[in-house]
Each structure stands twice: as C-alpha cells, then as structure tokens.
Write a sequence for this structure.
C-alpha cells in the first residue's frame, strides 16, 4: 500500500485525501492549525467527518517534523502551501515526489481535461467555457473545477471517460505537475503576480507554462496573440496553437472584425465564420471580449457546435466578485471587483469605469509594484481609500504619481462609510483591491460579500 502525505487540511486537502483513500492508499493528513481551528471552516468539518478513518493518520496543530516522511511515497501539498517549508524541502532531499492535487487527480481518473490559466480572467473564462461544454451532448457530465472553487479530486471517484473537467489552474497548482496533459488548454495573459511565492517573474511565468508541457501534437493550446510574454512563453509548445487577438487576424483562431468576433481556420479570410457581435455578448468590455475569444477557441476547436457557443455567449452575464454590479443607491453605482487581486486586474476594472470613481484598494502584500496602477488612478479616481497590509505602500505610490486625495482606513465598515460620504450622484464606488485578501479574510469571496452587505445595509 502506498502512503501519501497530504499537507493542508481544508477544501483541497480533504478532497484529495478522500480520493486517495478510495483508491487504496494510506494517507497522512497534516495542517499547522489544530482540529478546533480547522473545524471553524465549512471547507473542513463536514467533509472531514465523512472520511473513512482506516488507513488515515492526522497530524494537526504543529509544523510537520521531518520524521513524518518515513515511509512516505508521495507528498501532495495544498495550493496555498509554499514549497519552501522544511517538510517539502526534506522530501525533495530524499527524492520523494512532490506533486499538486491536480496532478494526483489526473492520475486517479480517465476523464479528459480542459485547463485554463493566466494572470487575469481565469474565473470568467473557465466559468463561460464550462457552461458552453455543459450544453454539448457528447459529454455525460461537465465539472467546472480547480482554482475556481471545488477541487478536481472531489469528483474523481464518480467521473468517467465520458465526462469532462474544465479546470481553472493557478501557478500554485501547475508548478508541481508531472504528467498532467489537458486535451485543450489556454493561456489568457501574463503579468506580475505572486512574486512573494515564486521569487521572480521568470519563475512565475515558467509555472504557468507548465500547462502545455505534456500536451501532444493533437492537443489544443489557445493563446493570446496580443500578449508578448505569452507569445514568447509558448514558442516551444508541442500542441496545436489557436490564437486570439483584438489587433489582427490569425491564420487559425479568433479575432475581431469591426464589432464581430470571427473564427479563422486558414489563409482565406472570405471563409471565416462570424460568431457574435460585441453588443450581443452577455459580458461587456474589451477584457471580456478577450475572455470570450478564449472560450470560443477552446470550445469550437474541441468540436462544440457553433450554435451552442453562440447561445451561451449571449446568456452568460459574468461571475460574482468580478466587476459585479451591486446596487445604485442615491444615484451612486457600487461595483464589487473583490477578485481583482493584482494590479493588472485593478487596472482592467478602472479602465472599465465611465463615472468619477471612489476606489477602495489594498490587502495582503504580494510584493507588487503599484506605480502603473497609481498613474491610472490620477486619471480615473476621485478619491482613494486604502486598507490592509499594503495601504502605506499604495499611499507612497499614489504620492509619487501626484495623487493626494487618499485616506487610510482601518476596516471595511469604515471604508464603505467613507466611500458613501465622498460619493455624489453620478459617481461610482469600486472595490478593486489589487491585492489578495489573506491579511483580513479567508478569501476574496468573503471580502466581496462583506462589501456587498455593507453597501446594501
């Protein structure tokens, strides 16, 4: 019997533990939190209590000693666990394989994968792509999973070769794959993010690029032709490249002709296929045109009928916490972009604003540079409210850009109260933190939900 060490005992860790136990492995499940602290999370208690306890050892409440690696065949860290912790470094020293939950799930199922990565737009594109494939009768069931919410491992016991996983994949999930090979993959864009985890931009981009390293020449790779870093990244990809672009017509891929999204399948532009107009898209803005193009590329070149793609593109209205309209109160629009967890995402949200904007920003420090964001703030923002670990660094960047109308706030009730006080009819209040939420919240969903509650309350 193989023994697998699973590090991190919340949503992902418990899901992969259940899958491994069902597959006949022994599991050591560990977490630095104790059982009481873990039990406070809805992601832990109910699924953990349902686990069979035979062949399961739990080590909670302390750092894992190196001795715990004795007899371990494989280590599976949850995505949020840094690879620099002593137990993982010792595993590498001993030659014990360290693989991600996605890699383990891939080994435990024969269900094909569509994988989507990039710095921004992953959740919108993954959700839209999943909804398109759900309408395709070739698949018995489509699971939209991964970094978007549910772990892939939650479904490997029930999924079959007749199903499909559409998975949002972060750099944390991709950096420790080994054999994972999606039938179709997309790289949406690349911009600085998670440098506190990866150390350098090159390491971060390299982790993203692993999505295609095991693909074959028959597999599909959907690529942003307008992003120079993405283009460089995919030069050696073995798979069939499908390009998407706002700037020109690729020989094979998706592009914009006037206001219409088109499919090109060869050199003859007269044979191109019209998909949908920008106006008819359910999601708005240039960034969402790009997201829609990626979804079209994945679906169309995987054989989904065009009529299904068109119908879904019209019906899909976006995802929660991504430039989500909350309410208009006293003539002021309130927009929740809590999923804007890096500066590029915040810049995208600001560029979509058409009204004088009060911006709430700040949060967990991922060691980003706020210079470019603050240059846009001077053009788009009426007042800036800064919160969390990065508030002072953002204030310094605002000062350097010549923007003076900012305030540091202690918590979200204060931030929303000050935003309401500063806003006049015709203005907008935007939460787009440009930072992760982990300094004050469990996740960006909790942050966005509190913002919406405070706005409506």
């Amino acid at each position: 019997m193989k023994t697998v060490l699973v590090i991190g005992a919340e949503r992902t860790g418990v899901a992969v533990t259940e899958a491994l136990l069902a597959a006949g492995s022994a599991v050591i499940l560990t977490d630095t939190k104790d059982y009481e602290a873990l039990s406070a999370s809805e992601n832990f208690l109910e699924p953990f209590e349902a686990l069979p306890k035979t062949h399961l050892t739990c080590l909670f409440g302390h750092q894992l000693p190196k001795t715990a690696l004795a007899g371990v065949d494989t280590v599976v860290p949850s995505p949020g666990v840094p690879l620099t912790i002593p137990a993982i470094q010792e595993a590498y020293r001993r030659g014990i394989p360290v693989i991600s939950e996605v890699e383990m799930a891939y080994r435990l199922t024969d269900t094909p994968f569509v994988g989507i990565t990039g710095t921004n737009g992953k959740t919108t594109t993954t959700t839209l792509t999943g909804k398109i494939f759900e309408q395709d009768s070739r698949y018995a069931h489509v699971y939209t999973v991964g970094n978007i919410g549910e772990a892939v491992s939650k479904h490997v016991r029930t999924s079959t070769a007749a199903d499909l996983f559409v998975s949002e994949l972060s750099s944390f999930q991709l950096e420790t794959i080994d054999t994972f090979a999606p039938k179709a993959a997309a790289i949406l864009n690349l911009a600085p993010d998670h440098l506190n985890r990866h150390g350098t931009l090159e390491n971060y981009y390299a982790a993203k690029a692993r999505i295609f390293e095991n693909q074959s020449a028959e597999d599909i790779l959907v690529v942003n032709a307008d992003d120079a870093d993405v283009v460089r990244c995919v030069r050696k990809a073995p798979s069939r490249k499908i390009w998407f672009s706002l700037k020109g017509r690729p020989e094979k891929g998706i592009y914009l002709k006037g206001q219409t999204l088109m499919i090109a399948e060869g050199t003859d532009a007269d044979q191109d296929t019209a998909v949908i107009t920008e106006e008819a898209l359910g999601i708005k803005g240039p960034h969402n045109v790009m997201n829609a193009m990626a979804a079209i590329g994945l679906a169309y070149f995987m054989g989904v009928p065009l009529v299904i793609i068109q119908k879904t593109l019209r019906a899909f209205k976006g995802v929660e916490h991504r430039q989500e309209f909350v309410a208009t109160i006293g003539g002021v629009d309130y927009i929740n972009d809590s999923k804007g967890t890096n500066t590029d995402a915040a810049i995208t949200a600001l560029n979509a604003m058409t009204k004088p904007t009060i911006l709430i920003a700040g949060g967990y420090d991922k060691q980003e540079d706020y210079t470019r964001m603050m240059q846009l703030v001077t053009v788009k923002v009426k007042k800036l409210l800064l919160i969390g670990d990065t508030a002072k660094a953002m204030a310094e960047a605002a000062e350097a850009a010549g923007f003076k109308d900012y305030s540091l706030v202690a918590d979200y009730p204060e931030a929303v109260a000050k935003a309401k006080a500063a806003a006049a009819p015709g203005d907008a209040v935007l939460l787009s933190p440009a930072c992760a939420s982990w300094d004050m919240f469990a996740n960006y969903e909790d942050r966005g939900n509190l913002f919406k509650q405070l706005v409506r309350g």
Notes: The chain has three domains: 3-98, 102-315, 324-456.
